[in-house]
Amino acid sequence: MDFEDIENGIVELIRKAETELPKDVVNSLKKAYEIEEGVAKTQIDAILTNIDLAKKSKRPMCQDTGIQTFFVTVGKDFPHIEKLNEIILNGVKKATKEIPLRPNTVDPLTNENHKDNTGLQIPYITWEFSEGSDVKITALPKGGGSENMSKLGMLKPGVGIEGVKDFVVEEMIKAAGNPCPPTVVGVGIGGGADLSLKLGKKSLLRPVGERHKDKTIAKIEEELIKRINASGIGPMGLGGKTTVLDVHVEKAHRHPASLPVGIAVQCWADRRANMIIHSDGSWEVK
Amino acid sequence: MEYHLNIPADKEQIKKLKVGDIIYVTGKVFTARDEAHHMMLEKDKISFDPAEMALFHCGPLMKKENGKWQAVSAGPTTSSRMEIFEDKFIEKFGIGIIIGKGGMGERTEKALQKYTCVYTSYTGGAGALAADKIEEVLGVYWLEELGMPEAAWIFKVKEFGPLVVAIDSHGESIYRNIKK
Question: Are residues A260 and A180 in the same domain?
């Protein structure tokens, strides 16, 4: 198996994520352009022009190329599972030079920049296993401005789902223009503190505009979209109708005493790309 | 109203600007995020004159080609992180125009009024678009100590915008109006 070739595939995966937004995101921004006016419209116009320019010139659309984050599902029959971590790490280092990416990994104690987008625990990789022999990788480079607006609420179970909804709406109003709205908001309800945040982040992998299969959750999502957009915060917090492009909710069972709510916020640059590595080492980036 | 301004803009021009106006600027800008703010406030002397430039809250993505720096993607960073420094920064360096995104708080609002300065918003995330308005990279300070995003980069920009005047020098803030 040509491991170096797969590393080049990782570079292409990151390039795709950084330079080309998924269609579902672009379409929802175009819809926002139609309904906005005044200053809000100028903001969506700049966003759409920028998306176009980044795609054509193969340049990262945002200077904050994020913390490299990957969700990997490994087919249990893939022959070189032991190599995957190293392949991703080397791919990130190469991508930093070749695309290029902004060096974004800083030691929290010394403030020293590691300069290649790797470091302790970073890139951040979530591993899952499945049947079959293919490896599926989703890249979700995560910007700092939106990540800074993440929130964890350990609510009292007595407040119920209404309390959960109020918490999400209030936090997104407090976040205002900081996370580069219109955003995509991921909400994890239940589990423990860490699991709720993880669910929130993972829910960002779902395409914008796609409702949850569970009708009760889909209804909560719809209500949250409506209420947050009614705030009038608008694109970049300058006022307007579109504060969120979408809200995704996921749930896990909770401890009787706890009602964790994890909020993960993604900027309008909801960057995602997918890659499949086959058992013979061939790969595709979509 | 729409204005096309040269940097540095004189105080009379700054005073004319009202919340909601759109401006395009031409001239020199320097980037400063948390670390550069901190460092510049502590230093007695720095080797460029911030008063000649606009302050850009930005951590650009740069590349060096044939010995020359080029901006690849250079949109604004979240301004609210600089709230803890900005009033002192405006006072010390005589800043006239700030470019950022997401808005700033009360301390900055007061300083903008006191020292006749405006806070303008550029579309966050529109990094490729912003980079194309940068004509030349004139220099960089503290690159080794602070790293690429936190260093102070000096750019020559042409018709950089559209910038929305979001907090003016008369105590008005677009963000405060929306909160109400």
Answer: yes
pLDDT digits (tens, 9 = 90+) for A98-123: 999 999 999 999 999 999 999 999 99
The correct CATH number of B2-179 out of 3.50.50.60, 3.20.130.10, 1.10.10.10, 1.10.101.10 is 3.20.130.10
81-120 of A, contacting B, C-beta below 8 A: 100-104, 106, 111-113, 115
Q: Could you read off the pLDDT of A45-98 as tens digits, one per residue?
A: 999 999 999 999 999 999 999 999 999 999 999 999 999 999 999 999 999 999
Of A49, A106, A236, the CB nearest to B101: A236
What is the bridge-based pairing of β-strands B134-141 and A183-191? unpaired
Would the CB atoms of A176 and B127 count as touching at under 8 Å? no
Q: Is residue A47 part of a domain?
A: no
Distances (CA, A) of B175 to A54, A87, A131, B22: 29, 45, 51, 16
Q: Is residue A256 classed as helix, strand or coil in its secondary structure? A: coil
Identify any residues that bridge with A284 across adjacent strands, giving them in sequence order: A276
Domain span holding position A276: 3-16+62-141+271-285
Residue B134, pLDDT > 80, answer yes
B136: β partners = B156
Quote the ipTM score.
Answer: 0.94
